[in-house]
Amino acid sequence: GVMVFAPLTFCFLNRSDELWRERRRQIVVPMLLILGLVWLAFYGTARWEKQSMDSEIEADGFSIANRIQDRLIAHREVLSSLSHFIEATPDFTFLQFRKFTRITLEDNPDISALSFNDLVLLGERPSYEARMSRLSPLGAFRITERDKNQRLIPAAARPYYVAVRYIVPLDKNRPAVGFDINSEPIRRDAIERARRTKAMAVTSPIHLVQDSKKGVGLLEMLPIEETTEASGARKERLIGFAVAVARVDEMIEIATRGKIPSGLIFQLIDTDAPAGGKLLYHSEAPADGSDAQDRTPAWKTTLSMGDRNWELSIYITKKYLQDHRPWLAWAVGVMGLICSALLQMLLLGMTGQAFVVRQKNKEIQGLADSLENRVEERTLQLSDANQQLTREIAERKATEEALTKSEEQFRTLVSNIPGITYRCLNDKNWTMLYMSSAVEWVTGYPANDFIENSVRSYESIIHREDTAAVEQAIGEALRLDQPWEIEYRILHRDGSERWVYEKGRGVTGEDGALLYLDGFIFDITQSKQARMEIKRQSGLISSLLDSIPDLIFLKDIHGVYLGCNPPFCEFVGRPREEIIGKTDYDLFDADVAEAFRAYDRKMLELRQSRQNEEWISYPDGRKKLVETLKTPYWGADGTLIGIIGISRDITQRKQAEEDLRRMNEAVERQAVLARRLAEQAQQASQAKSEFLASMSHEIRTP
Questions:
Q1: Could you count the other beta carbons within 10 Å of the beta carbon of residue 514?
Q2: Quick one: pLDDT at residue 156?
Q3: Which of 172-181, 266-275, 475-484 has the lowest mean pLDDT?
């Protein structure tokens, strides 16, 4: 144990030592597993040995039980034989009885006596005693019992007696002749059971009347019946009992002599007996004389003795355990510990050797790492130099490729620009260093004519009237370090004038000095002419609008004024510049502006021309009635852009219409009056006619 557990203890306690830490990782778990297996082997072997011992004890117990059971069967056979003798010879004498039982007693020394006990009724007692006095070898015969002092006295009156007629051997059992076994409770209980079952009954352990020694005895009773015939019917009558007086000690000794293994103790008890009287036999008598053992039996069984149950219990002693010591389990345990110790020593040696090897390997590895680090450093330096060279080559190659690509992109870009791309010096002639091929399309001259002023300078084709303006614009932009934008005329190779648009900027060096000028030149002749034509037409339209006396205005869809003519400016009371970009709310009172916007919204919702009449007030207080026509203003793509409005003064027309209306009303009134006067005249004429007719009649009729 010390060899096994001491190294394990060091593994857990010596935590600072690297070797023991390594051993703890590699040894503890395998050793614990091995010790667990050793314990399992020890436990399994111990269990097997325990089961083997239990099986051996059980076999010994069955052997003892069978031998005792054989003796009990022999006793039953003895009583059965005696019963047959008595039934066959009812009037047997003492000599016949002794002769019949002598050999039986010799063959069965555990039966101390055999007797025949008559069943005598109370009324038959006198005649029975007289008859037995004549037949008994002892002469006078009395039915007796024991008093409280255990002295024999004549039996008291009771319904029946079970008196001993003959008993063999007689010399040792004289006091028993005539004894009424029915006078004692234990014997009486057995008698009643035998009468009831008509089979052999056995008493509880008793003290024998004829025995002066202390010992456990018992009576084995077999009822004997007499068969008679009366009126043709068989009738059986109990006449007595064949009784065997058995000594339990001798019976057990005979049954188990030389057959009890050394160290085993057994006891036999009557489980049906009252407390304190159960013990029948114990192979080692208890020190206190009790009939029970304090120890737990290793094995027990039940035996049948007549109508009673006996319990046989087997106990083991220290001697038995010593004789059956479980050496195999201990041998397995010791061998397991020895193997564990040897294996642990092997593991300790291997781990120690491995630790030394690892330490040496670490030293070698340290030297190798140092050398490898130097090689790696040198390799890294060479690799860095190689990578630097590779990067420089790659960068140069990438730069060349980028430059080539940039030049290609520049050429492609420049060739796709519909104008001249240039670089020139800031001198009097604008000496060109580079010009794109589009210069020939714009000027009619190839680019090579202008490079380094080989044929002509660019300054030579600028219109003389615009030269000063170009120089001034470029000079001012360079002074402010800003790009310039300028439009001017050049002279085309075909003699025509062309308008161009130029945008450029000065390029300076790191020291801030101007190096050259870069820029673009586009031919804008057509757009310039178009703008001039538009301007001319716009002037014509403006003159036309300004000459119309009606109020004309233009709004967008949000109500912002885009244009108007002078009559509208007069109405608003502001110049055109202050009207454009404003809304009605900026120019008029809120109620007037809201009325104008309401008309606008209605027209925009319907998207149709709308006409209305309204009174307007001028800033000087004049009021005019105007007829306003508002119509949608559509763009070229069909999008609604705004509103065009024309307001015409209809004040005089409305006044003339009002005068005409009033004149018509006056004429109508005169016509009505004339019709009334005509009607009145007609009525007067009719009345006159009627009067004249009446007067004429009166005159003609006296």
A1: 13
A2: 92
A3: 266-275
Sequence-ordered list of residues with C-beta below 8 angstroms from that of 335, at least 6 positions apart, any chain:
none
Q: Is the pLDDT of residue 701 over 70?
A: no
| pLDDT for the residue 294 | 45
Q: Is residue 521 part of a domain?
A: yes
What are 388-407's pLDDT values in tens digits? 877 877 887 877 777 777 66
Please indicate, yes or no, whether residues 511 and 579 belong to a single structural domain of this protein. no
pTM reported for the whole predicted model: 0.45
Write out the residue range of the structural domain in which residue 625 sits: 550-649
Where does residue 444 fall: left (phi above 0), alpha (psi -120 to 50 degrees), or beta otherwise? left
Last residue of a domain, one of 320, 342, 360: 320
Peptide bond into 169 cis (omega under 30): yes
How large is the angle between the packed helices 18-88 and 94-107, nearest 10 degrees?
160
Which ranges constitute the DSSP H helices of 509-589? 525-547, 566-572, 576-579, 584-587
* pLDDT exceeds cutoff 80 at 691: no
Which of 243, 312, 294 is CA-nearest to residue 80? 243
Structural domain total, the chain? 4
Burial of 101 (0-12, 13-18, 19+ CB in 10 A): buried
Residue, of 129 and 323, whose pLDDT is higher? 129
CATH code of residue 523? 3.30.450.20
Would 486 be classed as within a structural domain?
yes
Task: Return d(Cα 687, Cα 513) in angstroms, integer.
Answer: 127
- CA–CA dist 455, 435 (Å, integer): 14
